[in-house]
Amino acid sequence: MSSFRASGYWYDEGSSVPEAVDLLNLMRRYREAERSMRAQTRGSMGMNETDMSALRFLLAAHRKGKILRQRDFAEELCISNASVSALIDRLCRDGYADRVVHPADRRSVGIVPTEYSDTEVRGTLHKMHERMIEAAGTLSESERLATAKFLNAMIRSVQITDEPGHSALRDSTMPQSTASSRQGHGR
To answer: Exposed (0-12), middle (13-18) or buried (19+): which is 41, by Cβ within 10 Å?
Structure first.
C-alpha cells in the first residue's frame, strides 16, 4: 500500500499495516479528491454547491416516493425561505425541477425532479459511482464491518453536540445489520 506515514512521507519497505495517522491522511486525500470531483461536476452542470445539494436532496426524496415542498429544502439546506425560492426558480429555469400541485395538500406547491435532471446526474456521475461500488465490492464482509465501524466513529468524532457524552450518531445511520448486531451485543 502506498501511503503517507505519520511523518507525512512514505512507508518503510516492509510495512503493510497503516498507522492511525495514515488512515487520517488517506481520508484527507479522499476528501480533497471528492471536493475536486464535486467542483468539476458543478462546473459541468452550471450549478453552485447549494444547487447541487438541493438537486441531490430532491432526487433522493423522489427515489423514496416523496414530493418535497420549499420548506423541506429550507430545513435540509439551512437557508432562508427567500433563498429557497430563488434556488427553486434556478432549478426550474435550468430544467432540473418542476413545480406541481402537492398531492397531499392541493393548496401547496410540490417540487419534483424532471427526467432531464435524473438523466443529467446519472450521465455525469454514473462512471464514478460504478468505480466506487466496485471498490467497495472488493472488501470482504469483515473488512466492510471494520470500515463501517471506522467511518461511523469518524462521523461521531466530527459531529457537534450540546450534551456531554451524548452520541450524535444514531443507529439509523448504520447499515441495518450493523445496528442490529450492536443492539444484540448490549451496546
So the answer is: middle
Question: Torsions phi, psi of 164, nearest 5?
Answer: -60, 135
- Kindly report the pTM of this predicted structure: 0.58
Nearest to 62 by CA among 111, 101, 123: 111
Query: Residue 25, by phi and psi: left (phi above 0), alpha (psi -120 to 50) or beta?
Result: alpha
- Which range scores top for mean pLDDT: 7-21, 29-43, 44-58, 102-116? 102-116
Determine whether 5 is exposed, middle or buried from the number of CB atoms within 10 Å of its CB (0-12, 13-18, 19+): middle
Contact by Cβ (8 Å): 34, 52: no
Q: What are phi and psi of 100, to 5 degrees?
A: -135, 165
SS3 content of the chain, % helix, strand, coil (to 5): 60, 5, 35
Q: What is the reported pLDDT for 165?
A: 55
Find cell 415542498 and name the residue. Answer: 69
Question: Nearest Cα to 96, choosing from 65, 119, 127?
Answer: 119
Query: For residue 111, which phi and psi values (nearest 5 degrees)?
Result: -120, 125
Tell me the mean pLDDT in the region 154-175.
63
